[in-house]
Design goal:
Immunoglobulin-like; 2 helices; 27% strand; elongated
Length: 158
């Protein structure tokens, strides 16, 4: 009888210990691990709100593959903290997109793609995207894949 009572006490202690460990694990996951994983990286204020911007025009007639010019300029260079906010203005009579070639997702500003944010850029409309990391970002127009461009973002040395 005494042996059964000790086994019962050990079993009860084991169950309580298991419940306490699971509770601590869930609390850690919910209140420490998940917020840390979902936190956006800290970025300097100048990078998030640069004093200047880089302008790109979607040329009139870009929806026609025979047009010699699509994005003006086709390749641009922007500098972090100075001109890393890029603005596309649609000067065509057709709606266009600016869509990443490699599914780039900026850690702060999300996916580099008008289709996931504003949809197509209407005639005379604009789309802006602020890059927060150095790199070369190739893009195209989804409805008109012959329209391609490149944004190179470099570090500021000033």
């Amino acid at each position: 009888m005494e042996r059964t009572k000790k086994q019962s006490q050990i079993g009860g202690i084991s169950i309580i210990s298991f419940i306490v460990i699971v509770t601590i694990s869930l609390a850690y996951y919910q209140f420490v691990f998940t917020p840390a994983m979902n936190a956006k990286p800290e970025v300097a204020a100048e990078v998030l709100n640069p004093p200047g911007s880089t302008e790109i025009s979607i040329a009139e007639g870009s929806s026609q593959p025979s047009n010699p010019i699509f994005f003006t300029p086709k390749e641009v260079r922007a500098t972090l903290g100075e001109s890393n906010k890029v603005i596309w203005t649609n000067h065509d009579v057709t709606a266009h997109s600016v869509t990443t070639d490699d599914n780039y997702v900026d850690p702060t500003n999300g996916r580099f793609d008008t289709l996931s944010t504003i949809g197509l850029i209407p005639p005379q409309g604009t789309f802006d995207f602020t890059f927060t990391q150095e790199g070369d970002y190739l893009y195209h127009c989804e409805p008109h894949p012959w329209m391609t461009g490149k944004v190179s973002v470099t570090e500021s040395f000033s």
